[in-house]
């Protein structure tokens, strides 16, 4: 293995780059009139609830990394999805330029297959270079005091950029509001894949997010929910800044964790 990139094991998606014409190996579903799935330009385009899917074989209770490139046009909404009995995860397409999407998941104890779906709700959603690979989650925890069990937010820096900004560390959690945020720098390896997770909730209709670099995952629930960001560092990146941001209301964070994903070693 040259570096920490989680790309060394076999891609379990067939024709993920759509180089074989007409979407060979992909199933298509057009559940309603006007649903669109097409495979021009060696890409997959879906819209109006059209979707293309595969159901690759997986190993139970193992960790996988699902990635693709995607973009939307005409204010479209769409997502990269994975599901199985007891498993349902997705990552939304948000940019009208090609962006890298990634999600990691653990297969349920009974899972022999998962469904990987390229879903277009509306507009025009384009997908390319779909890859599913087995990975190992490295045991080393990269976030210090991510459960806030050390009092006073040790290892975290509180930032209050304006009057009224709030950052507090009561109840072994972090609470931010009014543009307050807590952050810490994390040493990383270049060209490597990481998964950043936490649990979070909002009250008083608050808005907030878990952030790393230019990526963010919005806090949307008033009960504890799990947030996740999977990202690859650039060839020149040696550290990243993790932020727990509260725009308004009252945003609570706990169990912040960041670990590296490595290609599974061949048996
Ligand atoms: Ca392609
Ligand atoms: Ca805690």
What does this structure look like?
This protein has 267 residues and is an all-beta fold. It folds into two domains: 117 residues, Jelly Rolls (Sandwich); 113 residues, Galactose-binding domain-like (Jelly Rolls, Sandwich), CATH 2.60.120.260. It has no helices and 20 strands. The strands form three sheets. Strands 2, 3, 5, 8, 10, 12, 13, 15, 18 and 20 form a ten-stranded antiparallel sheet that branches. The chain has a five-stranded antiparallel sheet with strand order 1-4-9-6-7, with no helix packed on it. Strands 11-14-19-16-17 form a five-stranded antiparallel sheet, with no helix packed on it. It is globular, with a radius of gyration of 20 Å. The mean pLDDT is 94. The site of one calcium ion has 5 residues, from loops.
Topology:
Elements: E1 27-29, E2 36-38, E3 44-47, E4 51-54, E5 63-73, E6 78-84, E7 87-92, E8 99-106, E9 115-120, E10 124-137, E11 157-159, E12 166-168, E13 174-177, E14 180-187, E15 193-203, E16 208-212, E17 215-218, E18 225-232, E19 239-246, E20 250-263
Antiparallel strand pairs: 1-4, 2-3, 3-10, 4-9, 5-8, 5-10, 6-7, 6-9, 10-20, 11-14, 12-13, 13-20, 14-19, 15-18, 15-20, 16-17, 16-19
This protein binds calcium ion (2 copies).
Residues 17-18, 42-43, 128 line the site of one calcium ion.
């Amino acid at each position: 293995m040259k570096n920490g990139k989680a790309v060394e094991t076999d891609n379990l998606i067939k024709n993920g780059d759509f180089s074989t014409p007409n979407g060979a190996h992909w199933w298509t579903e057009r559940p309603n009139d006007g649903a669109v799935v097409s495979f021009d330009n060696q890409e997959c385009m879906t819209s109006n609830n059209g979707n293309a899917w595969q159901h690759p074989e997986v190993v139970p209770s193992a960790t996988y990394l699902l990635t693709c490139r995607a973009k939307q046009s005409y204010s479209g909404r769409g997502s990269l999805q994975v599901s199985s009995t007891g498993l349902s995860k997705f990552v939304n397409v948000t940019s009208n330029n090609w962006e890298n999407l990634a999600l990691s998941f653990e297969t349920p104890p009974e899972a022999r297959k998962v469904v990987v779906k390229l879903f277009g709700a509306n507009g025009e959603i384009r997908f390319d270079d779909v890859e599913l690979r087995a990975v190992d989650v490295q045991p080393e925890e990269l976030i210090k005091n991510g459960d806030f069990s050390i009092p006073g937010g040790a290892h975290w820096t509180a930032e209050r950029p304006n009057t009224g900004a709030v950052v507090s560390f009561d109840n072994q959690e972090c609470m931010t509001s009014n543009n307050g945020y807590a952050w810490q720098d994390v040493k990383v390896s270049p060209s490597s894949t990481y998964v950043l997770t936490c649990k979070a909730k909002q009250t008083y209709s608050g808005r907030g997010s878990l952030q790393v670099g230019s990526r963010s995952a919005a806090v949307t629930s008033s009960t504890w929910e799990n947030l996740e960001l999977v990202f690859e560092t650039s060839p020149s990146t040696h550290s990243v800044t993790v932020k727990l941001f509260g725009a308004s209301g009252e945003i609570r964070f706990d169990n912040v964790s960041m670990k590296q994903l490595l290609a599974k070693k061949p048996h």
